[in-house]
């Protein structure tokens, strides 16, 4: 089982509002993960969590990172820890990537058949530059959780491990949006 993990907890200081509240980004991002091949999706909220939760269907699985203001690392830790024992891999996606579609997620998910789902590490790349989404096999979760500090997320962990880059520059730009 591959679970989508949508990180949407930040305050969006440069944006002027939490990015989970911008346009349709939150709902759209959940759909992108589902349509891209994730068996289920867990959304991690933080800043304005109640307001953001109200935008989602009532049956959408949501966890709240109470320490969201620490940075992306807190959201990633909470999200991975919330996934059930039947999940073999998580596809980590960010809410502020509005040009990344289901086709990108599907391309990254498709690598799980060649890398081994539980032991795999793969991430989208745009013109050779690593980006999101990132597929993290369960075998790596403990190391990622330990390394996820501040706004680093899994960056440090991924730098020290063999990660398959999946070129997606023909599908999207992969740029996060920080300003309107």
Order of strands, main sheet, comes to 3-2-1-4-6-5-7
Question: Helical region count?
Answer: 7
Helices and strands: which structural class?
Answer: alpha/beta
Low-confidence runs: none
CATH topology title: Spore Coat Polysaccharide Biosynthesis Protein SpsA, Chain A
Report the mean per-residue pLDDT as an integer.
Answer: 92
CATH C-level category = Alpha Beta
Radius of gyration: 15 Å
Would you give an account of this structure?
The protein is α/β, with parallel strands linked by helices. The chain has a single domain (2-167), classed as Spore Coat Polysaccharide Biosynthesis Protein SpsA, Chain A, CATH 3.90.550. It has seven helices and seven strands. The protein has helices at 25-35, 49-53, 72-82, 102-110, 112-115, 141-147, 155-159, and strands spanning 2-8, 40-45, 61-64, 89-94, 121-126, 129-137, 164-167. Strand 5 (121-126) and strand 6 (129-137) form a beta hairpin. Helix 1 runs parallel beside helix 4 (102-110) and helix 3 packs antiparallel against helix 6. It starts with a strand and ends in a 13-residue tail after the last strand.
SSE blueprint and pairings:
Elements: E1 2-8, H1 25-35, E2 40-45, H2 49-53, E3 61-64, H3 72-82, E4 89-94, H4 102-110, H5 112-115, E5 121-126, E6 129-137, H6 141-147, H7 155-159, E7 164-167
Parallel strand pairs: 1-2, 1-4, 2-3, 5-7
Antiparallel strand pairs: 4-6, 5-6
Helix pairs in contact: 1-4, 3-6
């Amino acid at each position: 089982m591959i679970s989508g993990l949508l990180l949407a907890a930040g305050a969006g200081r440069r944006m002027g509002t939490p990015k989970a509240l911008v346009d349709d980004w939150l709902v759209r991002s959940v759909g992108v993960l589902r349509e891209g091949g994730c068996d289920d999706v867990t959304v991690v909220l933080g800043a304005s969590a109640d307001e953001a939760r109200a935008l989602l269907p009532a049956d959408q699985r949501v966890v709240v990172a109470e320490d969201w203001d620490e940075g992306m690392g807190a959201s990633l830790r909470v999200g991975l820890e919330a996934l059930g024992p039947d999940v073999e891999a998580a596809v980590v996606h960010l809410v502020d990537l509005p040009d990344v579609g289901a086709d990108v997620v599907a391309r990254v998910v498709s690598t799980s058949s060649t890398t081994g789902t539980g032991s795999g590490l793969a991430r989208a790349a745009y013109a050779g530059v690593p980006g999101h989404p990132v597929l993290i096999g369960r075998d790596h979760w403990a190391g990622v959780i330990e390394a996820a500090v501040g706004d680093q997320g899994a960056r440090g962990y991924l730098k020290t491990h063999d990660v398959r880059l999946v070129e997606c520059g023909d599908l999207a730009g992969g740029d996060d949006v920080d300003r309107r």
